[in-house]
Structures are given as structure tokens and as C-alpha cells.
Amino acid sequence: MVVFSIKVRGSQSAEELVSVLALYLKGPSNIISLNASQLEFLTSPVQSKKSMGKERADSNSALKIRASTAKIVELDENGESLEIDDEVQEKASTQDHELKLDPSHYWIIAFNTTWSGPCRYFEAVMARCSINYERKDVHFAKIDMDMFLEGDSIAERFGISLAATTIDLPTLILFKNGKPLKRLPLKLQTKVGGEVLGKVGWDRSEGSVVSAFELAKLGTGKESTHKEDIMEHHEASVQSQTQEEEGLYSKTTSAMGTQSAPCVSTTPDTPVSTSGGETAPSTASESASETDDPSSQAKYTKNVQEEEPGSAEGGTTAVPPPTLNGEPGSQLVNMVGDKSVRSDISLRVLQQLYLPDQSNAYRKLNHEDMTLSYFHSPSFPAVRAITNHERKRILVTGGAGFVGSHLVDRLMLMGHEVIVLDNFFTGNKRNVQHWMGHPHFELIRHDVVDPFMIEVDQIYHLACPASPPHYQYNPIKTVKTSVMGTINMLGLAKRTKARFLLTSTSEVYGDPEEHPQKETYWGHVNPIGPRACYDEGKRVAETLTYSYMHQDEVDVRVARIFNTFGPRMNENDGRVVSNFIMQALRGDELTIYGDGQQTRSFQYIHDLVDGLILLMNKNYKDPVNLGNPEEYTIREFAEMIRSEINANVDIMSLPPTEDDPQRRRPDIGRAKRHLGWAPKFSVHQGIRETVQYFKNNKMEQSWYAT
Ligand SMILES: O=C(O)[C@H]1O[C@H](OP(=O)(O)OP(=O)(O)OC[C@H]2O[C@@H](n3ccc(=O)[nH]c3=O)[C@H](O)[C@@H]2O)[C@H](O)[C@@H](O)[C@@H]1O
């Protein structure tokens, strides 16, 4: 039996790939396409034989899948799909079910996900099954569309035969010791309704790569009848390497068994995306954050696109026109769609969506013709090269939000692998757009209220709306996010032995009677007021965190974050900094709630990120305040913003908000003592950068707000 676990993006490519593999295997196969969300539902008899008793042990060949959207495809000996009873398919997609791991079948499990968690989990399950039940006939093939590093596999740890392959459609990139060795064109060819529906091939000379063909042999001991195909393709791929150097390769894909017309296009080659890049100028630098390791205080160079990307027409000059049937000189198709339904659009514009161009990650709204253009860079900001041993796999919940995205930037630049979970309620993909596609980065839409499984070393748990209008918008959801989200993440930390950092808030002190606020202060919170969903939610989150520490020995950290501001705040966030800046930029009156005598202390985002990373990496477990003690009344703050922007606007008073804390200023003695941390940015410097950010984004953001 050969088990393929395939990690891909998009169910279509999963199905295409497994179909092609099935053809090679030329035997009865079962194909299951799973979505990432099904991870936690994927269970199997992983207990030891002893603990399970005979009855359960007999079910060793069953894989239980509670799959809400699992799709099952069965193929006959010729690789033709068998009709699956509607009822069975319906049942598979709506109910838990058990799949018999019939050893005479190949099992191809396609994980439709950008996240390696399900694959790893599945491999572990399978490995345990095969060890517990002495199933020597289980072999693993792992195909990871993003990146797969040799040896980085649970299956391998269990000593199971493993074929390590990395495929990055439409090219195959071979990795050795984490470094891309070379890229080869991967051809998927389809004949409509024909006998040979697919071809897949890759260079096997690297040793680490075992073809599906060889796997078929491993699984069945039989010679494949497709050796010639493979050899032929091998030669073809060597030939096309030369073409690749010239910057071209061709790709044809089609779903197996469907009568779809072949689609042929020519795309430019792109360099393997690793650190740095030849095309993007290196113009800015960012200093590393402090960690326990003084050597980490290096400077990172960040590639920033200087050139303003042009309009849709001007920004993609690197994209060559398509050729029909791959033959240069054929008539070019340059428009698609139909004017009558206004679906007509230039192919060139569409190509920007799926073909990488030469400009850096960037987005531009053209107000003249109201088009929105996204640009993508072939190069990423350079990240520090660290060893596999040093590199941590870090989960950041809420990583697409204001604070989260800055934390992600820093962790990425530090050279770590970062996985972002976000439900995008207040977070935004644009905040992390510049990392999308980077081999160290994964972005997953997931609500922490639902359980989530992954293997990580550290968890920064930020997910929760933080602005009062946002968290009061749906208070029940806010409480659920704080409570259930934190339970889920603590459960994950417990299982994986990851270190867990909770981002709590100064709001746990409520409307404080002690000033400035020390961590030892218990707070003054109205448990039934409009802010309670957030304040009490975070207080329970802290309680949970320390309960898991005491009861289950989870390694925890708690940061109590005071008012923070900076670029990537949403202009409609509702918090005072973004409100005042946007009001002043628009020439509107600044709105003060109440008499403006209430105080706040504002810290700049980079200081907070420094503090969070320090806290995570130091050995201090009690709550720590992170904030800038520079305290302003809200009226003083309004005046400061007005003069920074040089805006000739009035300040107006609005009714006070209920339970608004009257004084807030952190005592940061603990952070100084235990983390060696103190804010470095003056509020003025931070405000200047933030104003610049809002100015740059003003036109576009205002349009979005409508
Ligand atoms: O900025 C933050 O990081 C914090 O923001 C909020 O706490 P809050 O201090 O109420 O934040 P704002 O909504 O920015 O309000 C600050 C003060 O400005 C006042 N304000 C706000 C907005 C406005 O337009 N005018 C105005 O006078 C508020 O009434 C309040 O007194 C969140 O509750 C915290 O979790 C979060 O850490």
C-alpha cells in the first residue's frame, strides 16, 4: 500500500495531481481530497494495540475521517473514475465515516491546504498504525507543493519508507538541506477524452526524489508498465531545462476524466523565491529585535520597491503574451470575455493574477478608471539565514491584524517559519501580502473559536478585536474569542509543548484606582458594562493561561498591552489615534469624548513588538506591562496631533463613553527588570510615521470606507 499525502493549494490542483498520479500507479486507487479545516476531525486508532483490545485492534486498517467536505474518488484498474453513489458521496461529505485501508489499493490523500499540519498529523497517524499493527506494506510519498525539506517528516522519524518530493506547480523545485537546488519544469499533459490523460515526470537523479513510478514498485513489488513514459519524460525534462534557462516553459493541465478543452499557455520563468532578489533594489534596513541571543541584533536588509508601479498596462511588462498551442508566432489572444455582459477584459490584466511579474508586492487603486491593481514581486525582503535548529515554527493568531502583522514581519525577518491564523474580522490580508508565497510563511483563514491543530514551537496568541467599537460590535463573539480561542490555543500548546504567549491588555485594570498601574494591581472592572466583554474576556484568558500552566505545565507568558499605535491601523478602527489623524487629514473637527481630561499613554508599534519577542524568549512567566509611560490627557493629545499635521481644525466635545477608564499609565518596572525592555520611540516620532502612512493610504482607504 502506498499512501500519498499531498499538500497543495486549491482543490482543483489537488485533484489534477492525484488524478495524474493515479494514472501512473495503474491500479485501483482511492483518492480523498481533504480541506485543512478537517484536520481536527481526522482520527485513527493510534492507541497501542494493548490499550485498544482486540476489537479495536482489528479495525487497524480503518481511517476515521469526520469530513465535512471530503470528496472521495475511486478509480478502477485503468485509472478510470468509478461512479460513486450519490448517497455515499453525500454521506462522505456530511458525516463521519470510516475508510477501510484496503492494502490492495493505493491511498492518495490530497490535503487541500497551504498548511502542513494535516499532512504531518496524517503521517503520524499512519506511521503509528503501521508500527502498531506491523503493517510493513505502508509506504509514504509526500508531495508538498510549497516546500518539503528532506528529513523533515514524522514518517521518516518513524522509520517508514519515505519519498520526499517537492513540487511547485508548474515547476518542480528540488531542495537539499533546505536550499533550492534547481527548478525543473513539471509537465502535466492531457489529451481530451484520450487514452493517455496525464504525464508527470521529474528528474530522479538527485536521489532524494522518488517517482510515483518507483513508489508503485515499493507498494506492490510489481514493475510499472510506465517505465518508458517516465524515461521519456525524464529526457524531455532535461531538454526543457535549457528552455527554462531561456525563460520559458509550458504547462498544460486538465482535470482527469472530464471533457475539458486543453488549455495551453506560455508563462515566464521566475527565479526560485529565496532571500534577496536581483530585481528589487535594496533601499531600507530594519534592525533586528532583541532576544536573549545578542548575536541576533543584526541588521536586516529589506527589499523595498522604489519604483511606483504603473497602471495595469505599465506594471507588467515582464509578462510575455500567450502563445496558442505553445507555438510562437501563432495568433495571439489578448482579450477575453464579452462586452455585452461587460466581462471583457484584457488577458494581460488577468495574467497579473496568476503570473508573477517583476514588481514588488504592491497594490494601487487607479481613481481615473476605478481599477485596482495588485503587483507581486519575485523577491521577498531578505530574511536572516539561520540553521534549522535555530529556526522556530511560530504560530501567530491574529497575525493579519495591526499588531500581529508587525510581529509577523519581525519574526520572518528573524528567519523563523511563521504561520498566521486570522479570521479577517479586523485583520486584513493586505497587511501580510508581502510575505505571501514566501517558503517560511503560511496564512490560514481560521477562527480561533474553532479548534486548530498544528505542530509549532511557539504560539503568540493575539486574535481578538481590540478597538472598543469593534469588540463591542458583537460582545458575545468577543467573549467567545477570548475564552474559547484561548482554550483552543492553550490546548494546542499543551499537546505540542509549544511556548504560549497571551496578549492581554491594560483593560484588565478597568477604570483603575491605582496609578500608574503595576502588574500586581487587581483592577477595577465593571463586569456587566459595555467594555466587559473585552475586559472580562481577557481576564478569563489570563486565568485560563495560568490554570494551564499550573495544572498542565504549559509554558506561558502574558503581556498586558497598553495603548499602541502605528502604521496598518485601520483608519476606521475607532481608536483615538487613527480617529484624530484621519480627522485632521480630512480637515474635520477632532472628536473628544467627554471633557478630554482622561489620560492615556501611547506606545509605538515597534516598541511593543520588541517587548513581545523579548517576553516570549525570556524566562519570565508572570504578567508584564508593555506600554510607554509618556502620559497625555486626550485633549493634549488632540492638540499634539493637530500641530503635527499642521491642520487648521477645531476640537469638539462629544458625550463621554460609558465606563471609559479615566487614567491609564503603565508601570514598566517589571519589564525593565526582567526583560531589559523600555520603549525607544518617542510618541512624536511614532506619530510622524503613522501620519505618513495614513497620508500615503488616504485616497485608497477613503474609497474602501465608502
Ligand atoms: O489602543 C489600544 O491599544 C487600546 O485601545 C483600547 O483602549 P482605549 O484606551 O479605550 O482606546 P481608544 O478607543 O483609543 O480611546 C482612548 C481614549 O480616547 C478617547 N477617544 C477615542 C476616540 C475619539 O475619537 N475620541 C476620544 O476622545 C476615548 O474615550 C478614550 O478615553 C482597547 O480597549 C485596548 O485593548 C487597546 O489596547
From TrEMBL:
<keyword id="KW-0963">Cytoplasm</keyword>
<keyword id="KW-0210">Decarboxylase</keyword>
<keyword id="KW-1133">Transmembrane helix</keyword>
<comment type="similarity">
    <text>Belongs to the NAD(P)-dependent epimerase/dehydratase family. UDP-glucuronic acid decarboxylase subfamily.</text>
</comment>
<feature type="compositionally biased region" description="Polar residues">
    <location>
        <begin position="250"/>
        <end position="263"/>
    </location>
</feature>
<keyword id="KW-0520">NAD</keyword>
<keyword id="KW-0456">Lyase</keyword>
<dbReference type="Pfam" id="PF00085">
    <property type="entry name" value="Thioredoxin"/>
</dbReference>
<feature type="compositionally biased region" description="Low complexity">
    <location>
        <begin position="264"/>
        <end position="288"/>
    </location>
</feature>
<feature type="domain" description="Thioredoxin">
    <location>
        <begin position="100"/>
        <end position="182"/>
    </location>
</feature>
<dbReference type="GO" id="GO:0048040">
    <property type="term" value="F:UDP-glucuronate decarboxylase activity"/>
</dbReference>
<dbReference type="InterPro" id="IPR044516">
    <property type="entry name" value="UXS-like"/>
</dbReference>
<dbReference type="InterPro" id="IPR013766">
    <property type="entry name" value="Thioredoxin_domain"/>
</dbReference>
<dbReference type="GO" id="GO:0042732">
    <property type="term" value="P:D-xylose metabolic process"/>
</dbReference>
<feature type="domain" description="NAD(P)-binding">
    <location>
        <begin position="395"/>
        <end position="690"/>
    </location>
</feature>
<keyword id="KW-0812">Transmembrane</keyword>
<keyword id="KW-0333">Golgi apparatus</keyword>
<dbReference type="InterPro" id="IPR036291">
    <property type="entry name" value="NAD(P)-bd_dom_sf"/>
</dbReference>
<comment type="pathway">
    <text>Nucleotide-sugar biosynthesis; UDP-alpha-D-xylose biosynthesis; UDP-alpha-D-xylose from UDP-alpha-D-glucuronate: step 1/1.</text>
</comment>
<dbReference type="GO" id="GO:0032580">
    <property type="term" value="C:Golgi cisterna membrane"/>
</dbReference>
<protein>
    <recommendedName>
        <fullName>UDP-glucuronate decarboxylase</fullName>
        <ecNumber>4.1.1.35</ecNumber>
    </recommendedName>
</protein>
<feature type="region of interest" description="Disordered">
    <location>
        <begin position="222"/>
        <end position="331"/>
    </location>
</feature>
<keyword id="KW-0472">Membrane</keyword>
<feature type="compositionally biased region" description="Polar residues">
    <location>
        <begin position="294"/>
        <end position="303"/>
    </location>
</feature>
<feature type="compositionally biased region" description="Basic and acidic residues">
    <location>
        <begin position="223"/>
        <end position="236"/>
    </location>
</feature>
<dbReference type="InterPro" id="IPR036249">
    <property type="entry name" value="Thioredoxin-like_sf"/>
</dbReference>
<dbReference type="GO" id="GO:0070403">
    <property type="term" value="F:NAD+ binding"/>
</dbReference>
<keyword id="KW-0735">Signal-anchor</keyword>
<dbReference type="InterPro" id="IPR016040">
    <property type="entry name" value="NAD(P)-bd_dom"/>
</dbReference>
<dbReference type="Pfam" id="PF16363">
    <property type="entry name" value="GDP_Man_Dehyd"/>
</dbReference>
